[in-house]
Structures are given as structure tokens and as C-alpha cells.
């Protein structure tokens, strides 16, 4: 039986001249380059962090214009106990960089970088909430995912995962507004709450808006009603047991989350190349079907918000059929858990290809019908064109990814920029539109559905690869049941895998796939045991939703409802 | 109004004055919204839309059996052989529980909903059996990890998704209830390690494919023979 493959080759910063040029501008010792499994890593001293970040962003040689992610890590044994981890990305250069800032326990204040990247606003609040980091100069540093009455910082290692708090109404989030100081018409202002439980809020968000007549002049959002701290739960469960949790992130396309997480762990194990072709093939087909499903849900519900109910029924019919396909593979419709680390849950059903072919017949007529009803319909055009518009430059600054970013004229797609699996062998286009409004976000999803269908057709034409559905490495995948019932060795592996879990080698990795609403990344740290040391999810809709007040301020109240639908905010992923 | 405008212009040029070159953004800084044409402004495409809805209306009116909606309690969806529903504890031929209380399912459960208390089995070859085996159906997330973990095929799933309880206590289902319905026939079974139905289907498909190939071969041979004859 085979053993674990050697860890993948490491990249270092010294090989990249652009980064070295930036490093030379700062005092020696303030930036330490480090080996990374997936991307260059810099350990930056806090004193120069802001300057380094600004240089990296504004230097034309580096152009790190997107701040993808910020999270904290806790190492109680180290002298510098905490680490703030920033993930930078340059769309132009397709380059990534991880900045790590070590912090001592007695001083956990960092400079706030909201001035450079507005998308960091909520990420910094999250790091404050989860780890207690301070951010000097942050405009609204309050808890975001936990209740205001929550005590302690849940992702610190000394916080007991079983701890319970009684949270009462006397400490609730009070919205913070930047009210324009006009001085007149004060009597006309009215503050209203939409949500948390309101049919127009897709999920449980609370939007507080100050209205002047029908116009929103200021607004604030409160989230966290669905927060379950999945990252803390990951730390107390084995690597394999995290997969059902990932189903519940973006539950409209649960399969893509499974793939993203499994790929992350496979990279850490160094078995990415060993995943059988059949598993890769099926993962791609089901991912694309999940994307279609997610776009159908998003566009259908957006149109419901605008009053066009018919399209909702048309778009939900293909979704129903895709659920049938997922159920025939994994046994569940919504929370599929259809991936395992190293492959798939089960052998594919015998009628898998026939079902996929049938879906390719069924889906296009519904998409055509909706486009015929909507695309040139003036009622929809009047409701959607120019609503909640954002330019590409601003969207990048707010860390947008996915269809919403592509509707603003920036053609960043992980499948094209950093092809994984077989995407580099497929013939597909990345649709880009330039309106940046609700109308173009709607249209780009329709175009992407067609691109996904094109990809699935190409994959099906290649035929199902033969071979196993999961790696045969007994340190990763459970032995087959026949072997387990009959052979002593397989039985021992079976017990070892379930009692101790997969032993993932020490290291850290950030791995991403193109989720249905943007770049879905997992930043995972292993300490060499059977459980993740830290498992952080980069949720694509988190920075997108943080832009919401900026999008709706100045518009009318009814437009705010339509713009929420177009952003495709999924509470399960937003609040984790 | 002119005063605030000049102010913004000044603040915009401030970074350039501070010695930092202002880069030209590689991304679109302005939005270019969709511009509707004349026909759209005259609401003409709505007629096409009305045709679409009318087609669907007539199709649904005269083809009700093709509709996607199901009148639920009377009719039910067909699920595959893999549906992950209510659990079943399988039995030995003598009707006793097959589980040997190895705790692998409880260990592998991400929701921690399985509670087992082990006891000594009178048969020394079996050693252990579960005195108590409870699943909290309100905690269970139906992921099938218990089935994957079981080394004895003692726990499998059915395709029963009707689980409603009057009290929370009823949701904790014990050994008796998990074993009781062993009147299960084949098509009520759900997620489990082996799917004999699928194997039958697979071999049938293989046989059909084989037959097709054979038929083609025979036809070819016939053609060749005919050609040789002439």
C-alpha cells in the first residue's frame, strides 16, 4: 500500500524581484520573508505594517490592489502569541502575498488599513470580535458576528468551545450612521428597521435606514444572527468531519464548498495530483451544476423582490432537477457532503451521465424563457439599470470577487486566472459587463449559466474516466467495505482513520476555488495532528455585503430591496 | 453649490501634491449602464414575454402530469437508493442486533448525536452489544458518516424522511425503534455501503452495451460475407 507523497515544493520570496525591491525600501529586519507552501509569506513588524501595505498597493511593480482576507491565529505557547494574517492579491499580476504580523498578548493593537482597502472594514471588526485585536483608526470597531453582550473572544485557544452565555436585549447593537449635516428638513427624517426577520432580507440581516421621504440618507447593517463559529467547531473535530460543516456555508451551492475544502486539505497532504480522474471529472461537473443552481436561486429571488414572480418558478424548475442529480450521487439534496478528502463519497450512480445529459436538455429552455421575459422588459430595466451601481475600481477596493465584480468590468475569475482541476483544458469565456448595477449583475449570472452548461457538455463529451472514485491511500481514504470486513490490515486502517483522523503534515495553506458568488478560499493551518489547528474560510459575500450601505445610500427604499437580491448574500456563508 | 465642488477637487489632487504619483487605474472608474433601444422604451418586448407565459400556462393546463410541483402527502417524490433518511439498525438472522458497540459511529459523528452504552454479550465470539443505542434525531444532520464508519454493516439508512415529534423526548430514538421496522423491503432502504440495485442496473447497462457491440460486429460480418459472395 502506498504511503503519503512528499510535501509539495516550496516557493520563497527571494525569487521574486518585485517583492525584493519593495523589501529593500524598509529597514532591515522589519520584513522577514518566509517559505510558503502556496504563496510568498512576509512576516512584517507592526510598526511598518501600514507603510509596507501602502507601498505594496501603490507601487506599480507590485500592484497588490485587492485585500482578500484578514484573519487572526492564536499560538498560546509562543512569546508573540497572536498573528494577524493578511492575504493580498494583485489582479493585474495574478500574484499573491501573505503578510503575517506577530503580536504580543499585552499589546494587540494594529494600524487600521480601512483607508487603503475599504473591504477591510468588516474583516477588521471580525478580527476584533474573534481575537480581541485592536485597530487604530477604525471608524466603527465593534463586535460583528457575536452579540454585543458576548464576553471573551471565541477563537482564542483558551476560550472553551462549550461555554454558554445568556444574551439579553439590554445590550444590543446600536446602528452607527454618518448623517449628512444639512440642518434642514429634520422633521421629515424617519429611522426604520428592515429585518432581522423580514421576507425581503434574504436570511436574517437587520438593516436600519434613515429615510428622508422615500430616500435613504444613511444606513447601517447588523449581521450575526446565524453565526455558529464554524471555525471553532472545526478545531474540535477531525479533518474529515469538517466537510458537513462546509455544506452549510453557501447552502445554495453546497457542493462547491465541499470541493474547496477538500482541495485545501489535499494540497496540504500533497495528494492533489493523486486524486483519481473520475473524482476530478465528477467534481467539476457537479460544481458547475451547483453554480447554475446558485445563479438560478439568486436571479429568481432578485426578480421576486422586484415583483416578477413568474421567473422564480421558471428558474426553480432546473434547480429541482439538479437537486435530483446531487441526491442520486450523495443521498441528500441540499447539504450534500458529496466530497471526501481524496475523492468522492461513493461510486457514481450508473445513470450519472444519462442524467447529466438530460439536464443539459432541460435547463436551456428555462433560461431562454426568463431572458425573453426579462432582458428587454422595460419594467425591469427601469427598476434595475443604474441601481446600486459601483465602478470596477471601487469594487476592487471593496474586495469584491465573482459575478458582482465581473458585472463592474473587472474580469477576474479564479477558474481562468488560477486554473485548477481541468479548467485550463476547457473552452469557455469569462463574461464581463460594464454597468456595475443590478441589471448587469442579473445578466452576468445568466451568461455564466450558459458558460457552465458549455463546460459540462465538453466534460461529458470526453466521457467518464474509468478507475476508482477515491484515492487508494489508506492514510487518507477509508478502505473499501469488502476489505474492511475481510482483511485485518484494512480493518486496522479503518479504525485508525476514524479514531485518530487523517494525519495532515504541519503547515499552512490558502487555497481557493471560484465559488458561486466569488473567490471562496480556505486558509488552513495544521499542527500535524488529526484536527485542524485553524480553519478559516474566506467568504466571498462578506466584503460584498459590507458595501451595502454605500450602495443604497441616496437611493430609494424600494431600490434597496432589489439591490440586496442582486448581491447574492447567503447568511450561512456571511456569518459562518 | 460651486463651493463644495472646488473643495472636492482640491482633496482629490492632494495626494499628487504630497509627492506620490497618482496611477491610472487599470479598472473601469465609471459605470456604463445598459442603454435600452427604442423598441424597449416602447414596451414592445413585453408581447414576447406574454407569449412565453401563455405557452407555460397552456402547457401546465393540459399537461398537468408534467408539472414539477407534487401534491405532497398524497404523492411523494421518488428518491434514489442513496437517500439519507431515518437510520436502521440491522439484525442478525436470529433477530438480535448486529451492532457490536465499537463506538466508531459515535466517534465519527460530526453532530455528536449518537449515544451508546455497551454490555457483555453472552456469546464469547461476539463479545459486546449495545445495551442502549440512541440517536437524537433533532441533532442528527443525516450526513451518513455513521454508515461510513460502521465495520459491521450494523447501521444503514432508510429513505424515510417523515420525522415529526410532539415532544423533544420523542426525538431521541432508541434501539427498539431503530430495529423495529424490520419489515423493510428493498426499495425503502437508503444510504448504505453497497447498492445491489445499482449493480444490477450497471450489469444490465454493460450487457446492453455488449449486445450493441455484438450486433454491430455481426452486421459487419454479414456485410463482409455478402461482399465476398458477390
Gist of the model:
Chain A is of the alpha+beta class and 576 residues long. Helices cover 39% and strands 16% of the residues of chain A.
Strand content of chain B: 5-15%
Low-confidence stretches of chain A: 1-8
The biggest chain-chain interface is: A-B, 68 and 54 residues
* Mean pLDDT over all positions of chain A: 86
Briefly, what CATH class of the largest domain in chain A?
Mainly Alpha
Name the shape of chain A in a single word: globular
CATH superfamily of the largest domain in chain A: Cytochrome-c3 Hydrogenase, chain B
Report the β-strand fraction of chain A as a percent range: 15-25%
**Total strand segments of chain B:** 5
Relative helix content of chain A? 25-40%
Structural classification of chain B: alpha+beta
Count up the helices of chain A: 20
Describe the structure.
The complex is a heterodimer of chains A (576) and B (230). In chain A, helix 7 (277-305) runs antiparallel to helix 14 (438-462), helix 8 (309-330) runs antiparallel to helix 9 and helix 9 (352-374) runs antiparallel to helix 14. Chain A has 576 residues and is of the alpha+beta class. In chain A, strand 4 and strand 5 form a beta hairpin. In chain A, 52% of the residues are buried. Helix content of chain A is 39%, strand content 16%. Chain A is built from 20 helices and 15 strands. Chain A is globular and about 85 Å long. Chain A has helices spanning 17-24, 46-58, 120-131, 230-235, 243-247, 254-269, 277-305, 309-330, 352-374, 378-384, 392-397, 402-406, 414-417, 438-462, 481-486, 488-500, 541-546, 548-552, 557-567, 571-575; strands spanning 31-34, 41-44, 66-74, 82-90, 95-103, 109-111, 134-136, 189-194, 206-212, 215-222, 339-340, 343-344, 507-515, 518-526, 532-538. Chain B is an alpha+beta fold and 230 residues long. Chain B has a domain at 87-188: Alpha-Beta Plaits. Chain B has seven helices and five strands, in the order αααβαββαββαα. In chain B, the strands form two sheets. Chain B has a three-stranded antiparallel β-sheet with strand order 2-3-5. In chain B, strands 1-4 form a two-stranded antiparallel ribbon. The interface between A and B is large, with 68 and 54 residues.
